Amino acid sequence: MDLSSIAVTRLKGVGPKQAEKLKRLKIASLQDVLFHLPLRYQDRTRVIAIGNLATGLEALTSGVVVSCEQLYRGRRSLQCIIEDRDGSQLSLRFFHFNQKQQQMLRVGSRVRCFGEVRRGPRQLEMVHPEFQIIAANVDPSVALEGESSLTPIYPVTEGLHQLSMRKITEAALINLKSADVKELLPDSVNNGVSLKQALMTVHRPQADVDLDALLEGRHPAVQRLVLEELVAHRLSVQQIRNDIKKQTAAVIEPGVASGEATLCEQLLASLPFPLTGAQLRVIDDIKRDLALGNPMLRLVQGDVGSGKTLVAAAAAALAVDAGYQVAVMAPTEILAEQHLLSFSNWFEPLGIKIGWLKGKLGAKQKRDALESIALGQSRIAVGTHALFQQDVLFENLGLTIVDEQHRFGVHQRLSLREKGVEGGLVPHQLTMTATPIPRTLAMTAYADLDCSIIDELPPGRQAITTVAIPNTRRLEIIERVAAAIKEGRQVYWVCTLIEESETLQANAAEDTLVELTEHLPAARVSLVHGRMHASEKEQAMHLFKEHETDLLVATTVIEVGVDVPNASLIIIENAERMGLSQLHQLRGRVGRGSAQSSCVLLYETGLSQRARDRIGTLRETNDGFLIAEKDLELRGAGEVLGTRQTGSAQFKIADLMRDKKLLPQVKEISDEITLHYPQQILPLIGRWLGDESPEYGNV
Ligand code: ADP
Ligand code: MG
Prior knowledge:
Helices cover 37% and strands 18% of the residues.
């Protein structure tokens, strides 16, 4: 029986409504349920004595209520103190509660509760624990009926709770007992655990399981699944790549032998500096790809400031010279605009017209831009995601250039690729990223992808000096800003907040602006944040670029790509809360000219060890590759690849950093399958990735 052909609705308790919600988790079949794996586990198999609780622990505990009262400190809450036999106390706090609950928690009640232990004002505390009252004749130290296995916590979606998910997986596991799930890996792969056993163990680990081994991925059941998942991902990337490579693309060959300089040569000749060896080498890689007649799929990695934009421009020149149009896309308006400026400066003197498309254009402007692109008058179109929209038609798109790729979703990239297809040709694709992909990841995620690395900075750049300073010394830093401005330099002040909310971020930036103008009355200041009108942002950036202002107070919207070579000092607030790669990107806003530049990481005191590590790494090195590798170690692969933002293609169970020792085996198995069992490829991909193609950037 093929479990992938059995609909979830056949499971007990799953009706059409549930099925609809499950669909959001990409669960349609029984097999999908079985491969929807827990994120982590809770241990409700043991009752832990209050005296043995520690902060951060999620635990089941019990005690007798010794006090229960309503508090009114700012906000109404119910505080209930429970105590165990040896007098250890735990506070249970509720911000939402009703009379019945209050009644249940009266003094003398015996309570068993489960929750995360936090440090409270007086004693350890659980906020909104799950709780139940135990009858006097029940021994509270015995775990609840039916909790002989660890409690799995699943990825869920709105309206579908853990409890339902547990019931659904329970039902699927009962089916699995009598049915069999197809083994898709070759027989040679055998680590002593069958796929069926592995699934049983991971969904319902028995209380005696080696939990550490399970959580750290050392458990054979986990390894069995990880191996299969990584193989499926690798095969999928290869598959997509092969499909694309089979298609036909424009043959773009440099310069006819007319004796005249090609457009690319003219472009390079017009620059006030020679290209670096690394830039020239990467342009050669691109030239070779473009001449082949199959779509190029090249990823250019280069640290911040390595000069990727010019490489992109050279590629564009090659395509334009051969009679094709080029689309240049950036993830933010500020960045797109900057590309527009660079490309206009470089190409317009050579007689090449640049089109401009962004989200909010006036109706007439938009119509004109679209028309000019459709008629082929604009040879190069620069823009944001607006370039992806359906009403954008090219006359003959031959090359798309995507900057800072990890911010775009796979569908957007694919839809742009389709734009060239009308003429039967698939556009070449060049992707540029300043977040280098660590070698570890490159091995699997970018299986066999064509990569070029700009591993050299333009000459004359000085390493940026990075210092970490506690926020208590803020005034000193403000003085430093004043000094830099006095020397004719420009300064960035970046306000960061952990909250996603753009409003909060904007407020923080506005407050800082007020504070800084108070202390720096002579400075000319600009403000840029996400809540501002596009035209206001443009205006502020423009003023800063033209050195009409000295200080730019901004949120992290300026993270990528902004280029103002005269800026030599950047202050980053709350640096302790930010990821390494993001800090490195922000820091890369300075050190772009020949002046000695500095980066000040302001932090709140009381740094965690991890924050200390991150800041230490940044102070020690300016090498984006080292930083990316370290970032991966500290954060895990999903975040480094930027999949958290786009929300897809996270691994269900694998963790590239944790499991990297499996990678050579993954490659071997994938090759064996491709060679001897190609019929397994699609079932494997389907099982682990569904219809989604992986979110791996340049595929
Ligand atoms: P990134 O790789 O971060 O996108 P940019 O393309 O924005 O870098 O280039 C950073 C700065 O370096 C720009 O001001 C650009 O004009 C300059 N630049 C690029 N290539 C060279 C070079 N070969 N020599 C000197 N300056 C260069
Ligand atoms: Mg750039």
